[in-house]
Every structure is written in structure tokens, then in C-alpha cells.
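EI: anyone free to look at a 270-residue chain?
SC: sure, send it
EI:
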Amino acid sequence: MSEYWENVKNTAVKWVEEAGRMLKDSLHDSLDIQTKSNPNDLVTEMDYKVERYLTERIEQNFPGHKTIGEEEAGRNIASTEGVLWIIDPIDGTTNFVHQKYNFAISVAVVENGHGKVGIVYNVMQDEWFTAVDGRGAYLNDKKLPETCGPVSLPEAVIGLNGRWLARETRSDEASLHHMVRRSRSVRSYGTAAIELAFVACGRLDSYISFRLSPWDYAAGLVLLKETGITVTTFQGDSPSMLQQNTILAARPALHEELTSYLYNHKGFTY
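SC: here you go
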């Protein structure tokens, strides 16, 4: 059966590669840029174009599979029963619009709630992070280590959006500010899919977010599982594949250490 998922991955990679070419070509044109939930939540016609392209390919080649995407696909899906593709056509749309860099296409294939295939394509750097359940994770053609050495907070580089720090009101030793001061450094790339992939390959030791949707992290979960990274909600639960979650991804010992800063965090509403 694992050979089946390997073939699914290879097929999906071809589609994602074509979608990546579409995005690169579009950077030479003027974009139709709109906002969604707030002025910082951007969407372009390319978000819709890529999602529709991938959804059409899935429907044509895997008619029994379901799809859910960030923009419009699968709005009525209420169960992960069967095979579900979870798509983020452009993770990091703000980067796509403003920087034309640091954005990714993220695709996960989930069977009965269990991640089978994960693909994060870092488009402008042409980096492929791929994984198949039980077969390891890869950066391009190089297999990533299945286990990672321990790291403590003072040695750790953490992925964290600075907006969360700006909204925090508490100042005790359980605060995010105290956690950040104890860490070696903090980074924010503006794309959850890439940051989770960076944890999988060791460029980051942890990634923390107070609010993500399944299309932001579903592919990353497959990568992280294959590289021995612990990923949960702040309460220690497995992230939902259908609803928003808090996300804490880190090397196992560091994950336990960071949980103390996050489990009962009430510095702001997220």
C-alpha cells in the first residue's frame, strides 16, 4: 500500500510543479489583489487559479477522493473519512504580493484522518519538501534524518510571528516575552508551511502559531512525523484536519519545555 501513496506523491509533485510555473509566470503581470477577513488577509486571482487547477486534476484522476482548499474547495466537508486532499495554493500570499519570494504551495493527502502524503514546494527557491507515511521525508533528493538531537530553549531558534508578542499583556515568567528572551533567536518567514518544513529539516528548532487552518499545516504534519518532531496543539492534542488550531511543533524535549509557556496562555484572545 505504501507504493500506492508513493505514486500519488509523484503524481501530485508533477501538478504542483506546473502550478509553481504558473505562479512564477504571474509575477511579471499585475495582480488582482483583494482582502478577505481583514486588510492584512490578502488573496489574488492566482490563489483561486492554482487551487482550481489542482482540484480539477484530483477530480479527473482520483474521482473517489475529496478536496478541501483555503479559498473555495470543500466548504461542505465535515468528515475526514476516506481520502481527503488538503490544499493551500499559495501559503504566504502577502509575501507573494509584496516580496515575490518566501511563498509555497502546500498539498497533503489524508486517509481517514491520517496523513499519507505531504508536499511543501518553496517556489522561488525551488525547494521540494516531500514525505510519504512510513517512507521518510526528503528535501529535494536528500533524505532528512528520522531522529533529531535534543536542544534546550537557550540554544533554540524559534519560528514565531511578532504580532503575537505585540498583543501579549502578561509579563510573568510564563509569558511569551520571557520565552523569547530565553531563546537563542526568533524568526518569522510569513508562511506556516515553509516554517514547519524548516523545523523538519533543522533550520528551525520549533514553530509556534496561535491560529492556523488545516491547509496551513496538513502537509507539514506528514513531514514532521517522518523526522521525529512532536507537533500538537497548545493543550497537547492532535491538530484537527477540519478546524483551526493552535500549533506547537518542536523537537521532543524542547516541545515539553515550550508547553509550559503556552498551555494556559491567556495573555490575549487568539
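EI: Residues 129 and 139 are 5 Å apart (CA to CA).
SC: 👍
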